[in-house]
Amino acid sequence: MTPGLVQHPLAGTAAEFVWALPLLPLLGFVVNGALALASSVRIGPDNPATDAHPAAVPDVAGPAPTDAEGAHPTDAAQAPPVVPARPAFRTLVTVIGPGVVALALALAVAIFVAMAGTSPTTPFVQTYFPWMWVGDLHINVAFQVDQLSMLMVLVITGIGTLIHLFSVGYMRDEPGYARYFAYLNLFVFFMLVLVLGANYPILFVGWEGVGLCSYLLIGFWYSETANADAGKKAFIVNRIGDYGLLMAMFLLFANLKTLDFVGVTAAAGDLVPGGVLVTTICLFLFLACTGKSAQIPLYVWLPDAMAGPTPVSALIHAATMVTAGVYLVARSALLFALAPVAGLTVCVIGGLTALFAASIALTQWDIKKVLAYSTVSQLGFMFVAVGCGAYVAGVFHLVAHAFFKALLFLGAGSVIYAMHDAYHAAHAHGDAQDMRNMGGLRRRMPWTWALMWVATLAIAGVPLFAGFFSKDEIMGTLFERARSSTLADAHWLGMPGGTILYALYGVLLVAVAMTAVYMTRLMIYTFHGVNRTGEAEAAALREAPWIMTGPLVVLGILSAVGGFLNVPTFFPLHGAPPELLAQWLDPVVGPAALRVTHGIPFVPDASTGVTLGVVAATISILGIVLTCVRLRTARPGADAVPGRAEPAYRRILSHKYYVDEAYDRVIVRPLIGLSRTVLWKGVDGMIDGAVNAVAWLGRAISRIGGMIQSGQVGTYAWVLVLGVLAVLGAFSLLHHA
Amino acid sequence: MLPESLAISAILFAIGVVGVLTRRNVIIVFMSVELMLNAVNLTFVAFSREYGFAGQVFVVLVMTVAAAEAAVGLAIVIANFRHRHTVDLQAIDLLKG
Questions:
Q1: Chain B from 67 to 96: CB within 8 A of any A CB
Q2: pLDDT at residue A424 greater than cutoff 80
Q3: CB contacts < 8 A (A, B)
Q4: pTM for this structure?
Q5: Per the domain annotation, does B22 fall within a domain?
Q6: In total, how many domains does chain B have?
Q7: CATH at residue B67
């Protein structure tokens, strides 16, 4: 060690082995990938119609009145008996896939313990080797351990381990078992690179990598066009966001001459607060977030991403990858704190997305679609928080949401698994994801039922569950920020920031009510009321194996008590240490939050906090109770009977505000038209013409050359004699001259 | 004596050239080439009378080379004839581009 340099408190602890965190899943990817290749003689089902896999049912937008007749005896007689083949190398893959993630979790816990013991105030940066050294640009492959990245690592590896275990059961009979775990391991690797990277380019590598894995896993059952298309949609929509991240990096480097997080934090003081430059950078960063974290206007890929296996939806499209945008804003907190206009933009987009997506979730019938729109909506809540400088609240909700949304998705996966098995046993072909086909599953699947109710209460914000504390902290901080902050002083499109923030508080309250309603609706249609699967199927319905319910139980406990990570100081619960998460994250986001609040440390006002909490809790409980009463006697699908007039608002909601159609009409089709006419026929024609002209020239020259080369010795002799005569003639002429 | 010798030599050479250029039979072309070589030999001998012995040495050399060339050339002609049953030069165009 160099004398004179103050040693970082984490030096010499488990944090030295931070490189092993991403390398473990990468190792799993390599081994599982090799096994997948070795067994790739037959990947995916031979014939998608014989559904050798669960849950790959294309989204049925309209009513499916024939579903009930799926169990028709003639159908059953014709259906060929499908004997699922045992996937190759299953035992080995089962050990390696979840094993490497569990090992990473153990290492993460070790680093966490080391950090908790030393509580470092500066990030611990480990530089491994130079990556790009060009002129002023010095980019190293380096990892950074600080409180924020460690929290993310714990969430990723913790939830990741649970979901890997769940997948062992869920994907049991999948022929692409090894391929699935290879992709899932690769995802964990890239996600860890994303949160551990010590500079924007390394973060970008992870950012792109998780996008790739998302694409691969959405299109996991690629033999069906709809799934492959959903993967492509996710990939292409995310490219638009990536453009924003690249532009932000270019601007940062051009003006601050550094892309390291430490360097940017140090140099951010040189930027003009509220200036055009920092606002532009932040808006570009947020464009990246709208792509990856599915906010308006780029959210459209996330609902389609439900085409992937359900554990993938839980891990990638609910708990980890889609929260990368929230992480990015929290990581760039100091920049956003300098740009109140950009912060207001984040808040407004987040609030609108929360409301918009929640309203769509109210009318969806596909159980995963409801959860997908719910995720979009909850991400909106997180962005409102990080936008208004409540970074702790945003990250808190991120963690809590990871618990209960992973639980909801895995519970839905468990339901779909059971439904699929039931249809399978009855040789029927119903939509295993349509809630109109479910009902009354409570008696068949009591564990899933109870745990999903825990998650529902958590997401709805019923007191003492995780979502109550995290959502209340967002709403409470938003209220305080509307009262006094740099955002409240700024103007957005001519409107005063304070007014906007108060309005957003109202918007979020409506979103809270909608959250309670759509989640209760999901629970009632799925688990309560009469069973609508049919006699033969109902007999075959049973709880998933313990490898799937086990992770559900763990997540259920976390969803119930996760809120105590960050109990507000005024909360009347003696003995619980308040604001653990806020203290933990203070070294990372504290300075930025201080800047937003004019340098005055934010102390939540007890009376306001309690009032707001009571209001929000009342609204969500009322939402749950009223939905229970309203739907107790409801017949699902009765309002979708063809011929009966649907209210206009309902039609708009069930068609998701026609956003996909509008994008198709305004962007996709003109682009395709332009490509066909200008690029294909015009530019392509010119390029083809040039290439063909060169080829034609070569052919012409060769034809002339070929004519000279006649093969006639006589002709050659003539040419020789004429040449000799010419040379001799020239010599004699020169001689005489 | 020299001018006459050179004139005869030139006439012989010209006949050889015309033979090579105009005849289609490979054997005749060969003979024409030999005629050209011998025209050159005659020139050498004529000059050696004036300028010394060296010209006669060259004649021996040229005759040796001519003999070798005739051997090789006739071998090619026979080989080609066995293949294509012709000695017509215009029919022999395998090296056509």
A1: 89-90, 92-96
A2: yes
A3: 30
A4: 0.79
A5: yes
A6: 1
A7: 1.10.287.3510
